[in-house]
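Reopening this one. Same input as before:
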Amino acid sequence: MRRIVAEDLDWSLATVSSLSNLSLQCIVNNFEERPIYEELTSSEKDFIQNRVSLSLPLHFAANVFPDGVYWKRCCITEPKTVLDMVTLCKDHIKKLNIAQLLPPIKEPQTEDEEQASELTLANEDDKSGMDHFDFRILLDKLTNLEELHLVYKVKSCGMNFEWSMFEMTNRDCESLAKALKSCKTLKLFRLHLSHLEDKKCRLLVKYLLDHPSLRTLDFSHNVIGDSGARAIGKLLTKSKLEILNLYDNNIGGPGAKAIAHALSKNTTLVSLNLCLNRLKDEGGQAICKALLNNKTLLHLQLGANGVTWLTALSLSSMLAQNNTLKSINLSCNALGEVGGNALEEAMSHNTSVTECNIHLTDIEERRVSVINQMVWNNQFRKQETNPREKNTENAN
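Same output, byte for byte:
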């Protein structure tokens, strides 16, 4: 028998590329001269986008790749390169979603520098050199931007963990606030999971008070307390907000009272989410009483706020007079038998509420079933009255 011994001991048949991959690589190598793309399968298109040169002229790439991995690869680059590209496509960017922000990498310090930094640390205020991107140099160029989603955090920090990687600095907040004020077309601003506390919240709100187009504000999953909530209450009295999401913060009774005071005079807000805060009955009752004078709010969420039957009584009194509210979330609150009885009585006279979440509220199952049946009856009446709206919901 004869056998062949390979000189390369690591060689195996598995290292040989398939003919199809070799052909695709040939397309990649000559893509600018002969862009074969539309006739390929989805997996072959991904192969091309993952390997084609990022130095393709923008006017060429924009006509070939409408979306996909290629543009994601382009964004993983230096800020200056991104800004140069923004100048060319600024009129078409309406939504910006930034899932993480990497702070500058700290350079290793010498022993003398470490000793000097220890001596001056007590006198410095937010001078750590860990600031993130300055959005003023970007948002000024995006003249048609309508949505901005931001998260100040690092997804995979590894052994370099520092708390500053999961929150904005004071300078970050100030530069962002000024950038938001200059972005006159912005309709939706979402800043979550960024350890936004009262001081920074007040600063952002200060620059948003007179914003001409902002309609949705999402500060969910932060640490906003009563002081920040009072600033947001002031925003409700001056802005034209339609959706306010403060889910999962540290807002207590005093902060909720400030929001309630603004809500009693507000004529634009249609959705308010205060779930997973610390309103207690002081805040819950204040919100419910405010809705006696409010005729625009459609959706109210007060789940997991430590409210009891006292808030349920206030809500029931409000529902007897308010025929605007459509959905209520009271889940994960200890409403008990008294609260359930009050809600049942109120829903027997209310015809507007078509959604009512009372899961895990210590209300007995029989009463929950009765309340749910009343809600379903309201849904049915609404669909019968507005068949066009029913068809729209089915289409969605």
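So the earlier flakiness isn't reproducible anymore. For the record, Residues 365-385 form the longest helix (21 residues).
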